[in-house]
Amino acid sequence: MLKIIRAGMYTTVQDGGRHGFCQSGISHCGALDMPALRIANLLVGNDANAPALEITLGQLTVEFETDGWFALTGAGCEARLDDNAVWTGWRLPMKAGQRLTLKRPQHGMRSYLAVAGGIDVPPVMGSCSTDLKVGIGGLEGRLLKDGD
Protein backbone atom coordinates (compact mmCIF):
# COMPACT_ATOMS: atom_id res chain seq x y z
CA MET A 1 0.00 0.00 0.00
CA LEU A 2 2.91 2.36 0.69
CA LYS A 3 6.69 2.44 0.49
CA ILE A 4 8.92 4.24 2.98
CA ILE A 5 11.20 6.60 1.07
CA ARG A 6 12.55 8.44 4.13
CA ALA A 7 11.69 6.91 7.49
CA GLY A 8 12.46 9.85 9.74
CA MET A 9 14.11 9.34 13.10
CA TYR A 10 11.54 7.12 14.84
CA THR A 11 8.66 5.68 12.84
CA THR A 12 6.84 2.51 13.88
CA VAL A 13 3.60 0.65 13.25
CA GLN A 14 1.21 1.04 16.21
CA ASP A 15 -2.39 0.10 16.92
CA GLY A 16 -4.64 -0.01 19.98
CA GLY A 17 -2.06 -2.05 21.89
CA ARG A 18 -1.28 -5.51 23.19
CA HIS A 19 -3.33 -6.41 26.27
CA GLY A 20 -2.94 -9.11 28.91
CA PHE A 21 0.75 -9.98 28.64
CA CYS A 22 2.39 -7.68 31.20
CA GLN A 23 2.83 -10.58 33.64
CA SER A 24 4.96 -12.24 30.94
CA GLY A 25 7.14 -9.16 30.46
CA ILE A 26 5.40 -8.01 27.27
CA SER A 27 4.37 -4.37 27.52
CA HIS A 28 1.10 -2.89 26.32
CA CYS A 29 2.75 -0.79 23.57
CA GLY A 30 0.22 0.82 21.22
CA ALA A 31 -0.07 4.41 20.09
CA LEU A 32 1.18 7.07 22.50
CA ASP A 33 -1.55 9.46 21.31
CA MET A 34 -4.51 7.09 21.20
CA PRO A 35 -7.12 9.74 20.24
CA ALA A 36 -5.02 10.79 17.22
CA LEU A 37 -4.64 7.15 16.10
CA ARG A 38 -8.36 6.52 16.44
CA ILE A 39 -9.37 9.68 14.59
CA ALA A 40 -7.02 8.92 11.68
CA ASN A 41 -8.39 5.39 11.39
CA LEU A 42 -12.03 6.43 11.61
CA LEU A 43 -11.52 9.11 8.95
CA VAL A 44 -10.48 6.45 6.41
CA GLY A 45 -13.10 3.89 7.45
CA ASN A 46 -10.84 1.56 9.44
CA ASP A 47 -11.50 0.11 12.87
CA ALA A 48 -10.48 2.77 15.41
CA ASN A 49 -7.63 0.59 16.74
CA ALA A 50 -6.27 -0.57 13.35
CA PRO A 51 -2.52 -0.35 12.72
CA ALA A 52 -1.16 2.95 11.42
CA LEU A 53 2.22 4.62 11.23
CA GLU A 54 3.31 6.51 14.35
CA ILE A 55 5.80 9.16 13.24
CA THR A 56 7.90 10.87 15.90
CA LEU A 57 9.13 14.37 15.00
CA GLY A 58 8.08 14.12 11.34
CA GLN A 59 10.62 14.08 8.54
CA LEU A 60 8.91 11.16 6.80
CA THR A 61 8.37 10.60 3.08
CA VAL A 62 6.19 7.76 1.79
CA GLU A 63 5.16 6.81 -1.72
CA PHE A 64 1.67 5.42 -2.16
CA GLU A 65 1.56 2.24 -4.23
CA THR A 66 -2.23 2.13 -4.68
CA ASP A 67 -5.12 4.55 -5.07
CA GLY A 68 -7.24 5.09 -1.97
CA TRP A 69 -7.62 7.32 1.06
CA PHE A 70 -5.33 8.46 3.84
CA ALA A 71 -5.56 10.63 6.94
CA LEU A 72 -2.88 12.38 8.94
CA THR A 73 -3.51 13.41 12.56
CA GLY A 74 -1.58 14.29 15.71
CA ALA A 75 1.36 16.70 15.80
CA GLY A 76 0.99 19.89 13.82
CA CYS A 77 3.45 19.52 10.99
CA GLU A 78 3.59 20.78 7.45
CA ALA A 79 2.62 18.00 5.07
CA ARG A 80 2.74 17.91 1.28
CA LEU A 81 1.28 15.45 -1.21
CA ASP A 82 3.65 15.86 -4.13
CA ASP A 83 3.81 19.68 -4.36
CA ASN A 84 0.44 20.39 -2.71
CA ALA A 85 -0.04 21.28 0.94
CA VAL A 86 -2.43 18.95 2.78
CA TRP A 87 -4.40 19.48 5.95
CA THR A 88 -4.21 17.20 8.93
CA GLY A 89 -7.42 15.81 10.35
CA TRP A 90 -9.07 15.19 6.97
CA ARG A 91 -9.70 12.15 4.79
CA LEU A 92 -7.71 12.76 1.62
CA PRO A 93 -7.42 10.89 -1.69
CA MET A 94 -4.14 9.28 -2.72
CA LYS A 95 -3.03 8.02 -6.11
CA ALA A 96 -0.39 5.40 -6.83
CA GLY A 97 2.98 7.08 -7.28
CA GLN A 98 2.19 10.15 -5.18
CA ARG A 99 4.56 11.06 -2.35
CA LEU A 100 3.53 12.37 1.04
CA THR A 101 6.21 14.31 2.91
CA LEU A 102 6.02 15.46 6.53
CA LYS A 103 8.30 18.13 7.93
CA ARG A 104 9.27 18.59 11.58
CA PRO A 105 6.19 19.47 13.68
CA GLN A 106 5.58 23.03 14.84
CA HIS A 107 3.86 21.63 17.94
CA GLY A 108 3.48 18.14 19.33
CA MET A 109 5.73 15.15 18.69
CA ARG A 110 3.76 12.31 17.14
CA SER A 111 1.80 12.16 13.92
CA TYR A 112 -0.34 9.25 12.73
CA LEU A 113 -0.74 8.18 9.13
CA ALA A 114 -3.66 5.85 8.48
CA VAL A 115 -4.57 4.43 5.08
CA ALA A 116 -7.90 2.88 4.14
CA GLY A 117 -7.59 -0.86 4.62
CA GLY A 118 -4.90 -0.46 7.28
CA ILE A 119 -1.19 -1.24 7.41
CA ASP A 120 -0.64 -4.88 6.48
CA VAL A 121 1.59 -6.44 9.14
CA PRO A 122 0.91 -9.69 11.01
CA PRO A 123 -0.49 -9.47 14.55
CA VAL A 124 1.65 -10.84 17.38
CA MET A 125 -0.17 -11.68 20.61
CA GLY A 126 -3.28 -9.94 19.32
CA SER A 127 -1.63 -6.68 18.24
CA CYS A 128 0.32 -5.23 15.34
CA SER A 129 2.05 -2.69 17.59
CA THR A 130 5.83 -2.53 17.45
CA ASP A 131 7.56 -3.44 20.72
CA LEU A 132 11.20 -2.48 20.25
CA LYS A 133 12.27 -3.81 23.65
CA VAL A 134 11.14 -7.35 22.85
CA GLY A 135 11.48 -7.07 19.07
CA ILE A 136 7.95 -8.08 18.09
CA GLY A 137 5.06 -6.60 16.13
CA GLY A 138 5.07 -3.99 13.43
CA LEU A 139 7.54 -4.75 10.68
CA GLU A 140 9.92 -7.34 12.12
CA GLY A 141 9.74 -5.73 15.57
CA ARG A 142 11.86 -2.74 14.56
CA LEU A 143 11.79 0.89 13.53
CA LEU A 144 10.81 1.44 9.92
CA LYS A 145 13.70 2.29 7.62
CA ASP A 146 14.21 3.77 4.18
CA GLY A 147 13.05 1.32 1.53
CA ASP A 148 10.48 -0.56 3.66
Automatic annotation (TrEMBL):
GO terms for molecular function: ATP binding; hydrolase activity. Coiled coil: none annotated. Residues 23-148 form the Carboxyltransferase domain. InterPro entries: CT_A_B, PxpC. It comes from the Bacteria. Keywords: ATP-binding, Hydrolase, Nucleotide-binding. Pfam families: CT_A_B (PF02626). Signal peptide: none annotated. This is Carboxyltransferase domain-containing protein. It comes from Shigella flexneri 2a str. 301.
